[in-house]
Specification:
It holds the Pfam family Ldh_2. Its EC number is 1.1.1.130. Keywords: Oxidoreductase. The protein has 11 helices and 10 strands. The chain has 323 residues and is an alpha+beta fold. A 7-stranded mixed beta sheet has the order 1-2-3-10-4-5-6, with helices on both faces. The chain has a 3-stranded antiparallel beta sheet with strand order 8-7-9. Helix 4 packs parallel to helix 5. The two termini are 18 Å apart.
Length: 323
């Protein structure tokens, strides 16, 4: 599907829910970009969920920017007031970059915000402007802490991004679970089993069935005890810096706490970030077989999308056009 056609349709749907034209279009563009980059679970196919959040009131104050509530040097704290998670996140990464212009580094914490869509959007936004970027979010409990069997920790996605040359940026976009919620949902919709086990079923047995995990079971943390520990500290750092809710207090992807960090590496001189990133990527080329670097698949997906358009599931397109 041509991206402009999708963006125009979704913009109109958001406007009908009372969202201003400029903000409606920007949200549509962010979800379209996720699909163009090959992250279909957090792109066009996620839009029906966003519409449901709008209509259900989970997205409130949808035309309001985050409000700064505290600041100290290069560290700032904002309240998202329940507005669009994607727009709040973009705002805060932009603010972190502005702080980095003045201080070399900027850190912005955000509370009371919603699901931010595809996390990698904000890492790519940073590297395409020459900044190192890090951002993460907590979530409602989705996994057992190591040694447990009930959901007690979030999958707390995190992004690391380093600028490279000619678009060859390093962008790692991962969740603390073995699979993200969106990846599980995509496998369930396609009927494909997971390539490796991703959690426990209702009887506590290891399973590769995404439906069992989503409906009746629990997801595994990546790296077992390591992912469990990392999820816990990411949750703590986000809640502390944002003075917001931790995972145990969250439900339905609402009221999240997030952190956005931008660094201006070339301010320190030296060979420059892009050259150092290129050296890292070139080092991977010596692997046998050659290893793929984080972000490489996105460039391939962009080339394909530029030719073939966006991938939108038939059921999603039917739902959107029936609105």
């Amino acid at each position: 599907m041509p991206a402009p056609k999708f963006i125009d349709l979704v913009t109109g749907l958001f406007e009908r829910e009372g969202v201003s034209a400029s903000r409606a279009r920007r949200v549509a563009e962010l979800y379209a970009q996720a699909s163009a980059d090959g992250v279909h679970s957090h792109g066009a196919n996620r839009v029906p969920h966003v519409l449901a959040w709008l209509r259900g009131g989970q997205i409130s104050n949808h035309d309001r920017d985050p409000e700064r509530v505290a600041a100290f040097g290069a560290l700032e704290r904002y309240d998202g007031h329940g507005s669009f998670g994607a727009l709040n996140a973009e705002f805060c990464m932009d603010r972190a970059m502005a702080l980095a212009d003045d201080h070399g580094l900027g850190c912005v914490a955000l509370r009371n915000t919603g699901h931010w869509g595809r996390p990698g959007n904000y890492g790519w936004r940073a590297v395409e402007r020459g900044y190192l970027g890090i951002c993460w979010s907590n979530t409602e409990p989705m996994m057992p802490a190591w040694g447990g069997t009930t959901k007690s920790i979030g999958n707390n996605p995190i992004v690391f991004a380093a600028p490279g040359e000619n678009g060859a940026h390093l962008v790692l976009d991962i969740a603390m679970s073995q699979y993200s919620w969106g990846r599980l949902d995509s496998h369930r919709a396609s009927g494909e089993p997971l390539p490796v086990p991703g959690g426990l079923d209702a009887e506590g047995q290891v399973t590769s069935d995404p439906d069992e995990i989503l409906q009746r079971g629990t997801m595994f943390p990546m790296g077992f005890w390591k992912g469990s520990g990392l999820a816990i500290v990411l949750d703590a750092f986000a809640a502390i810096l944002a003075d917001g809710a931790n995972s145990a207090k969250l439900t339905d992807g609402l009221g999240l706490s997030q952190v956005f960090i931008a660094m201006k590496p070339n301010a320190l001189g030296g060979a420059g970030a892009a050259a150092r990133t290129r050296e890292v990527i070139e080092g991977l080329a010596t692997a046998n077989p050659e290893a793929r670097y984080p972000g490489q698949a996105v460039l391939a997906a962009r080339r394909e999308s530029a030719q073939a358009g966006l991938f939108v599931r038939d059921d999603v397109w039917a739902q959107l056009t029936a609105e």
